[in-house]
Design goal:
Chain lengths: ~170, ~170, ~170, ~170
């Protein structure tokens, strides 16, 4: 059994996250849902981000941490600025921390996106309490399947959902 | 920690289930989703039964067993016959076994429904691998929450979802 | 310009319709949405009947008449009785009149269904104020398209929607 | 009967509209759906713009003209530039012309938005073939109701929907 260690996030700044950008190192021992998006990606706006909000509301008490990652690889002029992202998050009522993926040093794919080998946005990633990538899905994932993966990892970490806790 | 043992099902006959009505005793060691419904209950037709079908398709490989229980407590003339239920299941493409809850010996609530203290239909019940009731929900439950409860119980039983299996 | 005159309904009895079964003759001068269904047809329960209810609520004031037609051509034992239909309509909160299509004298297709050449259920039919069939759709029709057809016929009949009335 | 004449659009430039910004004067005799939005307005992205796209696809052949109006009254730094709007429209597959509402000469509400007395975004406006405002709705409108209003105006203009055309 060989699990891939989740690479650390490389972000330039963050929104909603306090002074320090979100990092996996600071969340050791926690189950994490990392939602990678672009604000001009319709599938992100209509499906992935509302789903991440629902997961945040449903499972925060059981210990899930939801993080966003804004990985801009197109339309930089329209979505590449912190002010635009902050306005977008306000209008879409996103209250979990979102890091801004560091621009590529060469090419167009931001650095964290490259590290994870993501194919595009949205990409949903689940990281277990031991810091390993346990699910990475490009495109959409159903609520039923995402819920099951979260429930499984929370149980494994000794934080089963309240609804099934003995 | 005191968990309630799931009472055995009391059914008169079944559809899709072979010669023998579904019983919890025969499913020892398995995680079970028991969906209690009436065929003339709109919330069952539009929400609970399609959700149970999705759960069956998504988690059968990981070991989940989905069972239906037809607990008729009203409109007996319209939905109280096996032929009507069989036609309903065919049209709604329900392929998991459905037991017909045994009529009350006194009063109107069928016997299994009474044993579980169900308030009405639909009611979704999750039974863990040890045979205990771990979730019982009257009305609707979201896919995200049902998924998490299933994922948690499958993990506990050593059958984590394929998507997060190391 | 040759429009097909809508054949009269042949029904044995009705639910919600008072003592007299619904007839086109008694509704001369009115725009009619005729929704043909079976109670065990999932597409009817999940799409066509809720849509007919919405149309009834939205356009009754502008003069639209919504009628149901229960045209049973399969599973007679389960859905062929008035009591079953009445229970179904109660549970699904259908308040517009529903006639029971008269059984075939030969073959399995009920008489009104045969007269209209319907292919199955659900079938949505729009009849103009002059008594002509102006739309007949087997399967689903979108709200946008059904709304436009209703709005067009109401305008033609001098009963434009309140929202656009000068 | 006094109908309000639809005020002319005041726009600085347009996307998808060729060299000339969309104007009501150039569309005399046509039924128009004018969809007023902001790209960072979630109700616009998830409901109003997809609905306008559906209306464009469903009724273009019957003569409906769909126009967008980008009326920015907040988050100018994020959505106030033509490049951002063009990227947004590309990602959301909006192919009808969109004019950019002229900034206020005083205050924050753009000029066309002020002329129509709009309360915010999204606002859906229907203009009849004679150039009069026949429906103006802030917030959401159902497909059924919007469809009926469009069908009524197209019929009035002698362009009834193909589905009900004699």
């Amino acid at each position: 059994m060989n699990l891939k260690k989740a690479p650390e996030l490389i972000t330039t700044e963050s929104v909603n996250g306090g002074d320090v950008p979100p990092s996996l190192a600071s969340l050791s021992g926690r189950v994490i849902l990392l939602e990678c998006f672009q604000m001009l990606c319709p599938g992100c706006v209509s499906h992935a981000l509302p789903q991440a909000r629902r997961a945040d509301l449903a499972f925060r008490k059981q210990g899930l941490v939801v993080l966003g990652l804004h990985s801009v690889f197109e339309h930089h002029e329209a979505q590449g600025h912190r002010a635009a992202l902050a306005a977008f998050m306000h209008e879409n009522r996103i209250t979990f921390p979102v890091g801004i993926d560091a621009p590529a040093t060469s090419g167009i794919i931001p650095q964290t996106m490259t590290r994870y080998g993501m194919q595009g946005t949205p990409t949903s990633i689940l990281i277990d309490a031991g810091g390993h990538v346990r699910l990475q899905r490009f495109g959409s994932i159903t609520d039923l399947e995402l819920g099951a993966a979260i429930g499984s990892l929370l149980n494994e970490a000794g934080q089963p959902g309240a609804s099934t806790k003995p």
